[in-house]
Design goal:
By secondary structure, the protein is of the alpha/beta class. It has two domains: about 1-95 and about 260-350, Isopropylmalate Dehydrogenase; about 110-255, Isopropylmalate Dehydrogenase (3-Layer(aba) Sandwich). The chain is built from twelve helices and twelve strands. It has a ten-stranded mixed β-sheet, sandwiched between helices. Strands 6-7 form a two-stranded antiparallel sheet. Strand 11 and strand 12 (about 270-280) form a beta hairpin. The longest helix is centred in the middle third of the chain and has 18 residues, at about 160-175. It starts with a strand and ends with a helix. Bound molecules: nicotinamide-adenine-dinucleotide (NAD), 3-isopropylmalic acid and manganese (II) ion.
Length: about 350
């Protein structure tokens, strides 16, 4: 069980350290951790946000535990040198096309959600976000248009095979959970979405046991805050999934609570190779202050044990410890509490 740990920037190293501490506390035999630079930290040390050695360390591992990348000082660099290119590069290079972002309100903790308790209590959703295509990875650029104005452009596209493989992931997840599947698109306006919808309908034929519906993304955003309980599994493209998952995290209570798994097709000895990261970013506004909530990263480590190492019982132990810590009132500033990053990590370890 070789894990490449890539802490990154801002709160990335702070939250990753606590997740590593939780993994170490489990005392798993055969778990080895190697650290590598990524993001602005790697750009400063090596001149590139995703140095070849870091990509190699990720490739050589069975799983990657990732913190966050992003630094305001780098926002004016040429795009290929910006920290965000590191996570985009890892996803593309490692073909991590399936991003699982579960969002569930913790039982008894409905009051942590800004939604009314009876609405929030029903939220238990898995967002399956396509992660290696869409407008993120199309051609893009800036130009001077016919009117002499500066213009930015980004090409959005999805090819049938890209949609087909993520649709299968989503249908399998829905079938396994006995949940309905909602495909979210913008087929009323975008050709990209028309192809998306047609392929999802086609794949549905192979899963007669799964109830499928389609929803436009604007409506989906609205339904997420008004009737979140209507969703079981949601499948959507890269851009819509990015936005809706931050929205779903706010419905749970904080972006500091949502983990993710980014999976490809490469198999490891006991599961699937994957990259595991919180859905949040480097949070420059609180970085270096020991205030960040590490629970999303700790829960991402649990997903790693489940998906890459087949350690379901250990994953569940971590998840139960986090739920217990929250129920016991251990909360960071993001949830209106005063526990710091290290104290939250310690509290989770104490409840393992
Ligand atoms: P962000 O997710 O970093 O922060 C948004 C807000 O949530 C901030 O107020 C932040 O303090 C708070 N927050 C985030 N995580 C938290 C945690 N664990 N505990 C407590 N509060 C938390 O998003 P942003 O501010 O839009 O972006 C900051 C930088 O991060 C940018 O450079 C962006 O590109 C990058 N980013 C990286 C990733 C990634 O590495 N996968 C994801 C999102 C954003
Ligand atoms: C995320 C982030 C990334 C994305 C950025 C940092 C490239 O927002 O992982 O959600 O847009 O996918
Ligand atoms: Mn995001």
């Amino acid at each position: 069980m070789k894990v490449a740990v890539l802490p990154g920037d801002g709160i990335g190293p702070e939250v990753t350290a606590e997740a590593v501490g939780v993994l170490e506390a489990l005392g798993l035999t055969g778990l080895t951790l190697t650290h590598a630079d990524v993001g602005a930290a790697a750009w400063r040390a090596h001149g590139h946000p995703l140095p070849p050695a870091t990509l190699e360390a990720a490739r050589a591992a069975d799983a990657v535990l990732f913190g966050a990348v992003g630094d305001p000082d780098c926002d004016t660099l040429e795009r290929h040198l910006r920290p965000e290119q590191a996570i985009l590069g890892l996803r593309k290079e490692l073909d991590l096309f399936a991003n699982l972002r579960p969002a569930k309100v913790f039982a008894g903790l409905e009051h942590l959600s800004p939604l009314r308790g009876d609405v929030a209590g029903a939220l238990d959703l898995l967002i399956v976000r396509e992660l290696t295509g869409d407008v993120y990875f199309g051609a893009k650029g800036q130009r001077i248009n016919d009117q002499g104005a500066r213009e930015g452009w980004d090409a959005m596209s999805y090819a049938e095979p890209e949609v087909r493989r993520i649709a299968h992931v989503a249908f399998r997840a829905a079938a396994a959970a006995g949940q309905p599947l909602t495909s979210v698109d913008k087929a009323n306006v975008l050709e990209t979405s028309q192809v998306w919808r047609d392929v999802v309908v086609d794949v549905a034929g192979e899963y007669p046991g799964v109830t499928l519906d389609h929803m436009y993304v604007d409506n989906a955003a609205m339904q997420l805050v008004s009737h979140p309980g209507r969703f079981g599994v949601m499948v959507t493209g890269n851009l819509f999934g990015d936005i809706l998952s931050d929205l779903a995290s706010a419905c749970v209570g904080s972006i500091g609570l949502l983990p993710s798994a980014s999976l490809g097709s490469r198999q490891t000895a006991h599961g699937t190779f994957g990259l595991y990261e919180p859905i949040h970013g480097s949070a420059p506004d609180i970085a270096g202050q020991g205030k960040a909530n590490p629970m999303a990263t700790i829960l991402s480590a649990a997903m790693m044990l489940r998906h890459s190492f087949g350690l379901e019982a250990e994953a569940a132990r971590i998840e139960a410890a986090v739920a217990r810590a929250l129920a016991d009132g251990i909360r960071g500033g993001d949830l209106g509490g005063s526990h710091g990053t290290a104290a939250i990590g310690e509290a989770v370890r104490a409840r393992l």
